[in-house]
Design goal:
This protein has 274 residues and is of the alpha/beta class. Helices cover 34% and strands 18% of the residues.
């Protein structure tokens, strides 16, 4: 089976690594925390301590990429909570990290790259969004992700597929937890664009198994109730205090299409998980 390196074994990357190992793939996984090396090893992942800094990359990066044909990059920008000036600096730093990484990919056996991005690269002015929609990010993280996508796609030494996920949810992660009990929340009638961790992992598997490279995919479940309808229902299901939404109409009607995922990959979403 093909050896795969996963740069970033966080909430999604770790679960993905475990699933790929179950399917017979040898997996190398990276972390920036020395304490997490033993955790990765316990799950059968070949662990590496890898840090990407402007000053340079960890020496372990060469061994991390060695003998792997596929590299999955899953390192989010992490810009939430920063002011505009700090966010602008972090944007440059994130993009430079991707630029610094590329020569090491070029010198390695890696020929396929899967970059985990986000639907935040699209603005809110569109009602219906497909992969043909021209991105127009409004957030700092969306802007830097779009720049990183371009840097990887333009490199002809390897084939890159971009996977733009909607809002991530899972058994241990759901936005209703933080929304519970809050009042006067905006955009009550805006549609939700979510994707469950299980779908994330199986879509990545499908891309690998079907060799869908040099592609761009929007990965969002075909399930778009309004924010108020969805989160109030979820709060009831989890015995949480229901959030309260403002009655003002929202100008956000953004609905992310999943048709390309469904048709091109012949993929069926696990709608019961939503």
């Amino acid at each position: 089976m093909t050896q795969i390196s996963i740069l970033g074994c966080g909430w999604l990357g770790l679960s993905l690594a475990k699933k790929l190992i179950e399917k017979g793939h040898p997996v190398k996984g990276s972390t920036t925390s020395e304490n997490k090396l033993s955790v990765l090893k316990d799950f059968g992942i070949n662990p590496f301590l890898v840090t990407l800094e402007i000053a340079g990359v960890s020496e372990s990066i060469t061994d991390f990429l060695a003998e792997s044909e596929i590299l999955i990059i899953d390192i989010p920008p992490k810009l939430r909570g920063t002011n505009a000036a700090a966010a602008n600096l972090l944007q440059k730093v994130f993009v430079e990290k991707i630029q610094i990484l590329i020569p090491f990919i070029e010198k390695s056996p890696v020929k396929k790259v899967l970059f985990v991005s986000s639907t935040s690269v699209y603005g809110n002015e569109n009602d219906f969004i497909t992969e043909e929609t021209i991105p127009n990010p409004e957030t700092e993280s969306g802007k830097q992700l779009l720049l990183a996508e371009a840097i990887l796609q333009e490199n002809k030494n390897f084939e890159t597929t971009i996977l733009r996920f909607g809002g991530l949810i899972g058994e241990d992660r759901h936005p209703v937890t933080s929304l519970s009990g809050k009042e006067n929340l905006e955009n009550a009638d805006a549609p939700v664009n979510l994707i469950h961790q299980k779908d994330c992992i199986e879509i990545i598997e499908a891309i690998i198994n079907q060799s869908k490279w040099n592609e761009v995919f929007n990965a969002v479940a075909p399930f778009h109730p309004s924010r108020s309808t969805y989160y109030i229902q979820k709060a009831k299901e989890q015995n949480l205090i229901s959030p309260k939404f403002s009655t003002e109409k929202s100008n956000i009607k953004k609905t992310i299409s999943s048709e390309k995922i469904e048709n091109n990959l012949n993929y069926k979403f696990k709608l019961d998980e939503y």
